[in-house]
Amino acid sequence: MEQYAAQFIESPLMNTFDKTPERKISTLSEPVSLIHSPSSSYGSSSFKTNKGDSESEMGQKKKLGRKSSSFAYRICDHVKLGGPKLSQTVKGKLSLGARVIQQGGRENMLRQIFGMSEGEEMLKASQCYLSTTAGPIAGLLFISTEKIGFCSERSITFPSPTGHLIRTPYKVLIPVKKIQRANQSENVNKPSQKYIEIITEDHFEFWFMGFIRYEKAFLNLQKAVSMANQM
């Protein structure tokens, strides 16, 4: 456990543990390692297969229509999750885009925030939200062949051990080899609202939501876990 805990980015939220704690609800003042599960129904880790060449042209058109509608919904849902103040949400997205350009792309951003080892490959970087009981936190989810990293798009205020308030990005780092399983989930009341649940060997739970390209993010997560299991 101590070796695993040392893999986390040290921040006011990412304290290391001497032993595996009981699963509990997390708040912004607690370690982010324990994330409260949103209302959801667990889905299968496998993807649905396509119907094949016998599918009618009408069926194909309906399928494309649903896909387009789903994509449009995810964009709206992604923006809505940022909170009631649309101007602040848009400002955060523009700021994140500027940071990506300033740091030379998303792979360079991953390298600067979390570091990358020799031979490590970035598979996907997705805008999404980390689900917490204090509310969703917007940021970038990085998926590489060795790690899953999340960094908030804006700095968040935390109380320091000395009692002073400090502002720092909200970061999570999960070694891929420590992932026990990754699940697809959906909101029971809104099936179009999808989640990715990551459970580690030490029974920490992480919930990510508000993906614009949900399937691609989960596919690359599965790929990273599969590659780690083959090593």
UniProtKB/TrEMBL annotation:
Residues 28-65 are annotated as: Disordered. Residues 108-186 form the GRAM domain. Residues 50-60 have a biased composition (Basic and acidic residues). Pfam families: GRAM. Residues 33-46 have a biased composition (Low complexity). Belongs to the GEM family. PANTHER family: GEM-LIKE PROTEIN 2. This is GRAM domain-containing protein. It comes from Quercus lobata. The gene is LOC115964075.
